[in-house]
Amino acid sequence: MAIKSNAYYRGIVQAALTDAGISEPPVPVELVAERLGLPVRPVVMPAFFSGAVINEDGLPVMLVNAGKDEMGRRRVLAHMLGHILAVLDDPQETYPRDTTMEHTGAEIAVQEFIMPESLVLDQAQKWFNDYRYLARLFGVDEQEMLNKMVDMGLIKQRGIRWDY
Fold first, then answer.
1. CATH class of the domain at 6-110
2. Residues 37-53: pLDDT tens digits?
3. Ranges of each domain in the chain
4. How many CB atoms lie within 10 A of CB 153?
5. What is the pTM of this model?
């Protein structure tokens, strides 16, 4: 199995978002799963358990802990979708069996599902890089949005880039 780049995982998520017709935040991750024909089942689970992908009649089914808050459910669903998209894109890819060896591709997928770079850029231009407003729009906390915008180069550590 070849090592995949961060851009690869962002690309498969962007393709899924485009196929699902998502163009405005917040991203309805469950809708993406629905468009892929993947059932999502909220199930009451112990607090330490977030979710799982199980095999039902040869097809993946995503179980999500109904006891988690909305953002927690969105994140775990995005994580599982990251794994499923990687397997759908590359038949040689496998689901991780050992939680200590969890690959980072799914975590990159989570970030791209929750705050897709294309949508962040679009909304930042519309709202003059107001990371506080964008945080509410995307359903994340302000620090997380600020970090994303700094990583994207939209906001510098000191000041805001206004050259668009």
1. mainly alpha
2. 999 999 999 999 999 99
3. 6-110, 115-164
4. 9
5. 0.84
